[in-house]
Design goal:
This protein has 158 residues and is an alpha+beta fold. It has 5 helices and 7 strands, in the order βαααβββαβαββ.
């Protein structure tokens, strides 16, 4: 997949169903196999992903390929809150393109670094972050999932 086929743009209200689908896919493929049954039940019952999209979608940038949403990124100040790529689009440069877009915006806002987190079990994301210049800065307990995870903090100088 040539990265030039990937268009990054601001999210639109019409993207909301696709954004929820992206989060659902990444929950099922990345998180569900690793979290406790109780954490999974809480996530589903509280519609955590759907509520996140409903509340924050105007702040998202999306990657689009051939008219379809392939992934999303969300940042506030110098912190990347979320990066999610559809399973069918992983390994095609979508994550790299979204990260590059966010890093340019973060730098344009006057920040000298970008920061993000992942969990130790998410080796795929760690591989991507390291490949594009992020450096591990800290590890600490993950309180979000209540599943005994360790969060890894990464930073990149811009």
């Amino acid at each position: 997949m040539a990265e030039d086929r990937i268009i990054v743009r601001r999210a639109q209200a019409t993207d909301i169903p696709a954004l929820k689908q992206v989060l659902q896919e990444t929950f099922q493929g990345t998180w569900l196999p690793n979290i406790t049954e109780g954490a999974a039940q809480r996530y589903v019952e509280s519609d955590t992903g759907g509520r996140y999209v409903d509340q924050s979608w105007p702040e998202f940038a999306v990657a689009e390929i051939d008219g379809g949403v392939a992934g999303l990124i969300h940042w506030r100040a110098d912190f990347i809150e979320a990066l999610h790529v559809m399973a069918s689009r992983q390994g095609q440069g979508v994550g790299r393109k979204l990260l590059s877009h966010a890093e340019r915006a973060i730098a344009a806002a006057g920040f000298v670094q970008a920061r993000l987190e992942t969990d130790t079990f998410n080796l795929r994301s760690q591989t991507l972050y390291k490949a594009v210049g992020y450096v591990e800065k800290d590890r600490y307990p993950d309180d979000e999932w209540d599943s005994g995870f360790t969060t890894v903090l990464f930073e990149k100088r811009l």
